[in-house]
Every structure is written in C-alpha cells, then in structure tokens.
Specification:
alpha+beta; Jelly Rolls; Phosphorylase Kinase, domain 1; 4 domains; eight-stranded antiparallel beta sheet; about 25% strand; elongated; binds 2-acetamido-2-deoxy-beta-D-glucopyranose; membrane; Prot_kinase_dom; ATP binding; Ser/Thr_kinase_AS; nucleotide-binding
Length: about 650
C-alpha cells in the first residue's frame, strides 16, 4: 500500500462519514409539461393539457364555475428537521398564465407548500384551493401559499391583481399589488414568478421584479415534510389557470432517526480510527520489511559490476531528479515491463525505463540486458547508457529517440497529423536497411549470437534523422525457461503476427525466427499494414504474409504497396524487397535467408532469393535444405541446432 492509497482510503472514510450529515439536493425541472410527466405529479381536479398544468381545467363544455384544484410534485420535500435544527432552503421559478373566462375573472392561483396532498372540500371561490371555511385560520391546515389573486373577494384583499403570502388561511400576512409594478395577472400572457426561501427570508419576484422579501420562519408554521405545487379556484367568475413550466431547487436535509444517526456516526468514527491505525501499523511493518527484507535480487549488483562491459550506474536520486520524480507528464510509454519516462541527465535527453513491480523481466534478463546489450555498440541499436537498482526497483537508461517508434509512422495516420508526412520510399528503404544491419550485427557481428526475439515496428525507434534504431532488448518478453516443456503458447516470447509458424512447435527462438519477424516487419513498412488480421490476430492464414503470398501467386505483388506512397517508388527495388521479405517469411526455416544475405540483397549485390510461386505448405519437421545456392545464402551458424543465447533468455 502506498501513500496515495492511504490518502484515498482516508478520503473515502471522510466521504462515508460525510454522508451522515451531507446536504443533498431535491430538484426538478419541467421546461414544459408532457402527458408522460403526469406520473410524477399528483393532480386533483387538474390535468396536463397543451404542454401545461391546467389547475382548473376547461372541462369541455362543462362550467368551470365554483371549481378548485391542486397539482403537486409526487415526492414530498423535507423542509426542516426539528432534531437537527436544520431548515432547508429552496428557490422555484414557474411560468403562469391566467386567462379570464368571465369579466372579471376569478379567483386566482397559488404556489403552495402543504402537508396534505389532497384538496380540501369546498375550497373553491375565495379559498383558492388553499383552505376551506373550516380550516381557514387553523394551525391544523398546515399550508403556506404565495397567492396570485385576480379577484378582490373579501374586505382585506387589496385589489384584484396582487401577490400575497398566506399561512394556514387565505388571509395574507403580506400582500403587494402588482398594478404598481406594471404587471397584470389577468392579461392572458405568460408571467414568470420566482419564490425563494433562504431559511430566513421569503422573497417573491414576478416578471423579474422584487415583490416582497420578508423574514419568515417556515418551521413555525409547517410540518417537517411538505408537498410542493399549485392550487387554484374559480367562483362565479371563471378563468383558466395554467402553469407552463416549473423548476424547483431545494436543499435536501437528510432524514433519519437521531439516535440511529449518532450510532452510525459512532460506528464510522470508530471504524475510521481502527482502519487508520491498521494502515499506520501496516506501513510501519512494510517499511521494516523493506529495510530488513532479503534483497529480492541478491548478488545483482556484484554480477553487473563484475562485467567490464557494464555501462554507468546511476543513483535513484539522479533519476528522480531527471524525470521530476517520475512525473506522469514525462511518461513516454507503458508496457508489460513497466513505464518509460523522458528525463534530462547531465543536459542530455534520455529515456528511463522503470520496471513495474509485476514486470515480466526478471533478474537474469536485467543482468543480461545490462551486461550484454550494454556492451553492444552499433549505429542501428538504441544505446543503453546506464542502469540503477535501488529500493527493489530496476531502472534502465537509454538514449532518447526524438521521433519515437516506427509503428506510429507506418500505421496511424491520425497521430501523424498534418505536419508529419508519410515516410517516403527512400526513408523506408533506409529504415529497413538499418534494421537489417542491426540484426546482422546481433546475429553475426558480436562475440555471441544475440537473438532479439521481438522484432516489430513498435520496437524500432527513429532518431532525429529517421535512422532506424533497434531497441527493447529483453524487456517486452518473458523468459523462455530451458528444460521445461511448454505446450502453452503464452510462455513463448514474441508478438503474435511476427512469430514464425514453427515457434509454437519448438517453443524457443532461433536465428530463423528472428529472420521471419524481420520479414514481417519489412512487409509492414512497405505495405503500411499491421501484421495480423485485426480481427483474429493469431489466425496465421489471414496475416500479411499470407496475403502477400496470394498476391505473389497472382503476379500482382506491387498491389500490396502502401497507397500513401502514391506510386512514388522504384518498382524493381520494391518488388525485389517484397520478394526478399517473402523469402524471410518462408514457412520452412531452412529456406529463409541469413541476415548477411538479406543485407547483400538490400545493397543489390545479389538478387533476391528465389521463392516459389505458391506459398509452400508448412511442414514439420522442416525438410533440410536439399541444395544450397551458395554458402552465403544459407545459415552458417545455428541451423536450428542449439545456439548461443544470451544468458537468461
Ligand atoms: C417530462 O416528459 C418528457 C416527455 O416524456 C420528458 O422528455 C421529460 O424528461 C420529462 N420531464 C421530467 C422532469 O421528468
Ligand atoms: C374536485 O375534487 C374534489 C376533491 O377531490 C371533489 O370532491 C370534487 O368533486 C372535484 N370537483 C370537480 C368539479 O371535479
Ligand atoms: C357558486 O357558488 C356560489 C356560492 O356558493 C353560488 O351562489 C353560485 O350560484 C355558484 N355558481 C355556480 C355557477 O354554480
Ligand atoms: C436556486 O437554488 C439552487 C440550489 O440551492 C442554487 O444553485 C441556485 O443558484 C439558486 N438560484 C437562485 C436564482 O437563487
Ligand atoms: C374542509 O376540508 C376538510 C378536509 O377536506 C373537510 O374535512 C371539511 O369538512 C371541510 N370543511 C368544509 C366546511 O367543507
Ligand atoms: C380566515 O382566517 C383568518 C385568520 O387567519 C381571518 O382573519 C379571516 O377573517 C378568515 N377569513 C374568512 C373569510 O373567514
Ligand atoms: C388586465 O388585463 C385584462 C385583459 O387584458 C383587462 O381586462 C384588465 O382590465 C386588466 N387589469 C388591469 C388592472 O390592468
Ligand atoms: C426557526 O424556528 C426554529 C424553531 O421552530 C428555530 O430552531 C430556528 O433557529 C429558526 N430559524 C431562524 C432562521 O430563526
Ligand atoms: C430579509 O428581508 C429583510 C427585509 O426585506 C432584509 O432587510 C434582510 O436583509 C433580508 N435578509 C436576508 C438574509 O436576505
Ligand atoms: C353568483 O351568481 C349567481 C347568479 O348567477 C348569484 O345568485 C350569486 O349571488 C353570485 N355569487 C357570487 C358570490 O357572486
């Protein structure tokens, strides 16, 4: 467990604890009312028509005189909590439209908060659907309303065009005429009204004009839970009262039994304390383990230092500094081996590979990479500058390749963007030649034959001049354990699509399997196509190789060439190279040319090897070569016999 995980756990705990007192949200928004919205509303003597709630609907033909109705949002809203001493706040905006049917119209519409979602009997006329004669003035009514009154129906009503604040009665504790504000409720036009309650003041705006704002404590009058909605009524004077749109935002003070909540709080806090002490103890214990545990790679340092070929050893501190503490901004890539970071060491750009904890690269591979590959110097190999082994982590420092890997240039037009042109035929030729040189050097140029075992476009790096640099030695692969007989292909190192058919039978890499991968790479570079069928990667028959054999059979091998080259290439050189690639991908490993021959063909010293018109069947064991054109054309070193592999491979 690392520090960030501890922080995450702590954060989670805080969140968990937080939910107990968290203020949520009770909100909804109806830009218009559709019939489907009816199920979310409680409607009594009201209905949805013409995209609006008709609180007193025009019941076709029937008189709407002496009528009252209500419409509520289905879920109740928790207004306050006595036990917690909390009061919710809310704001709501709605568009109302009142169309008088008689001159004058009547009676009015109101926004109400009511404990009871039913409609009081006989609440028509002056009662506005808020109360009736028996509940008026009674604290049992449990209702609060902001009335939009269109009729002066009793003495205290100031006029027939006002807004009032009513509590448990139709008697308004505050009323303001809209006439002075230039607003006419009965004008049949849409009027926007906003009611806000911040826990202290009740504020009403109509048509964006402040009507009133007064200190008001809802919890003095209403029950903890209320339904929010509208009511309206008619009398002898009738009108259509509709709500065209409605939005409501209310804070949601959590429900729940107090004692239970304290219990939960107590449990959460104790759990947090327990988990925290656990984490602290674990970290302490782990640190001790780190300090005193056995070295996971014992003797690694000595083995590397014993080799005279080993490159520079770096301190973790230096690498940290070079990569700004392995900042993710410096990340160049990620693979099975771990992560690669860009860094600046002694003012030189470098690529630093940091082995992940569960990396497939073991100690032996690391040592092999550092001591053997570290000693290899070739202009077409990515150079290993140094290494580091500290705090149970392995690091490799390479020279930095500004143009990244080849695959992004040959496959992905997207990433290429407009600035980077497709690689020209000349560039592709130079790249292939470079890889061939590197591979020839590995196979024939060093003391021991070195097998790369994972030649593919993503392992070819490009320097600033687009020269190919073979990289990724031993990192992207699993180690092939000798003496074990595996039938599982999972253990076989390499990348599907690049692996020779016999790989699965002999379960190990050879010089010939490297040549095969090289052939696939050449085809990719020339055709701009991925090696396998994208759909079935392991389907040998649908691979690029099989495709090329088919075109070759039809004598149309040049059809395979990447269209992005716009036919700008030397046809003879191109077909020569394609045939060479096919020869490298010969199903019979004995028939594949050596890298020496490949180089000679590339420099046009010798013609490409002859390949049959039709793809030969894959036969195993492979027929030994029946004849040899010349000694240079055959494999001099390994011939599938035990070959020198790097230690640990
Ligand atoms: C109301 O109904 C319409 C139509 O079905 C739907 O698109 C909209 O989301 C509903 N509104 C709400 C707030 O549920
Ligand atoms: C309105 O609703 C009340 C109560 O639900 C009911 O008694 C009354 O008959 C209804 N009025 C009309 C006109 O439908
Ligand atoms: C409405 O009610 C009032 C008083 O209750 C009554 O006088 C009047 O006749 C009623 N009007 C209609 C149209 O029913
Ligand atoms: C309405 O309330 C919501 C949530 O409480 C808030 O985000 C919003 O700003 C408020 N709007 C106004 C106009 O006060
Ligand atoms: C007022 O409404 C209540 C509840 O609907 C009802 O019980 C009561 O009888 C009504 N009073 C009158 C006078 O209609
Ligand atoms: C309604 O109740 C209020 C008291 O809250 C009272 O002042 C008013 O006169 C009553 N109105 C009617 C019409 O009974
Ligand atoms: C409001 O508008 C209606 C319809 O246009 C009109 O009859 C009425 O006189 C107006 N009332 C006021 C107070 O302006
Ligand atoms: C409202 O009244 C309640 C008691 O009913 C009280 O606890 C609360 O502090 C009051 N709120 C304000 C803003 O005065
Ligand atoms: C509440 O309204 C009063 C009167 O309008 C005003 O003086 C006061 O500042 C308001 N308080 C808040 C918190 O809005
Ligand atoms: C309603 O109209 C009827 C006649 O249509 C009349 O008798 C009654 O007094 C009126 N009531 C009110 C409250 O205006």
């Amino acid at each position: 467990m690392c520090f960030s995980q501890v922080v995450k756990s702590l954060f989670l705990l805080v969140l968990l604890g937080g939910t107990l007192t968290q203020v949520g949200c009770f909100s909804f928004k109806y830009p218009a009312f559709k019939n489907e919205n009816g199920s979310q509303l409680i409607m009594i003597n009201s209905s949805i028509q013409l995209d609006a709630i008709q609180v007193t609907p025009d019941a076709s033909g029937a008189s709407i005189a002496n009528y009252s109705g209500r419409a509520f949002y289905k879920e109740p809203f928790r207004l306050w909590s006595k036990s917690k001493g909390l009061t919710a706040n809310f704001n709501t905006t709605f568009v109302l439209n009142i169309s008088p049917r008689t001159p004058p119209g009547g009676e009015g519409l109101s926004f109400i908060l009511a404990a009871d979602a039913t409609l009081p009997q006989n609440s028509e006329g002056q009662w506005l659907g808020i109360v009736n004669a028996s509940t008026n003035g009674s604290s049992q009514a449990n209702v609060m309303a902001v009335e939009f009154d269109t009729r002066k129906s009793y003495q205290e009503d100031i006029d027939d065009n006002h807004v009032g604040l009513d509590v448990n009665s139709i008697y308004s504790i505050k009323q303001v005429s809209l006439t002075n504000l230039g607003i006419n409720l009965s004008s049949e036009s849409d009027i926007t009204a906003t009611v806000q309650y911040d826990g202290k003041n009740m504020t009403v705006y109509v048509a964006s004009k402040l009507v009133f704002s007064l200190p008001f404590n809802l919890s003095h009058y209403l029950l903890e839970e209320v339904f929010v909605g509208f009511s309206a009524s008619t009398s002898n004077g009738t009108e259509l009262n509709c709500i065209r749109s409605w939005e409501f935002y209310g804070s949601d003070i959590d429900d729940g039994d107090d004692d239970l909540e304290f219990l939960w709080l107590w449990i959460t806090v104790s759990a947090a304390v327990l988990v925290l002490s656990g984490i602290v103890f674990y970290l302490y214990w782990q640190r001790k383990q780190v300090l005193y545990a056995d070295d996971p790679y014992p003797g690694l340092e000595d083995q590397i230092k014993g080799s005279s070929m080993a490159p520079q050893k770096f301190k973790l501190k230096e690498l940290r500094k070079a990569t700004a503490n392995f900042n993710h901004k410096n990340k160049l890539g990620k693979g099975g081996f771990g992560t690669v970071y860009k860094g600046l060491l002694a003012n030189k750009e470098v690529a630093i590979k940091r082995n992940s904890k569960n990396s497939s690269q073991g100690k032996q591979e690391f040592i092999a990479e550092v001591t053997t590959i570290g000693s290899l110097h070739h202009k077409n190999l990515v150079r290993l500058i140094g290494w580091c082994y500290e705090r149970r982590e392995l690091f490799l420092v390479y020279e930095f390749m500004p143009n990244g890997s080849l695959d992004k240039f040959i496959f992905d037009d997207e990433k290429l963007g407009m600035e980077e042109p497709t690689l020209t035929w000349e560039k592709r030729h130079i790249i292939i030649h470079g890889v061939a040189e590197a591979l020839d050097y590995l196979h024939n140029g060093c003391e021991k034959t070195v097998l790369h075992r994972d030649i593919k476009a993503s392992n070819i790096m490009l320097d600033s001049e687009f020269n190919a640099r073979l990289g990724d030695f031993g990192l992207a692969r699993t180690i092939q354990q000798r003496g074990k007989t595996h039938h599982s292909t999972i253990e076989i190192a390499g990348t599907p699509g690049y692996m020779a058919p016999e790989t699965f039978l002999i379960s190990r890499a050879t010089v010939e399997t490297d040549v095969y991968s090289f052939g696939v790479l050449v085809l990719e570079v020339l055709c701009g196509r991925k090696p396998g069928n994208q759909i079935e990667e392991n389907d040998y028959n649908s691979s690029i190789v099989y495709w090329l054999w088919e075109l070759h059979k039809k004598g149309r091998i040049l059809d395979a060439v990447d269209l992005r080259l716009n036919k700008e290439f030397d046809e003879e050189g191109m077909s020569c190279m394609l045939v060479l690639a096919l020869a490298c991908c010969h199903p019979n490993p004995h028939q594949r040319p050596s890298m020496k021959t490949v180089l000679q063909v590339l420099t046009r010293e010798v013609p490409p090897p002859l390949v049959p018109m039709e793809r030969p069947a894959f036969v195993w064991p492979a027929m030994p070569p029946s004849f040899k054109e010349d000694s240079g054309n055959s494999l001099s070193k390994s011939q599938l016999s035990p070959f020198t592999e790097l230690s640990g491979r």
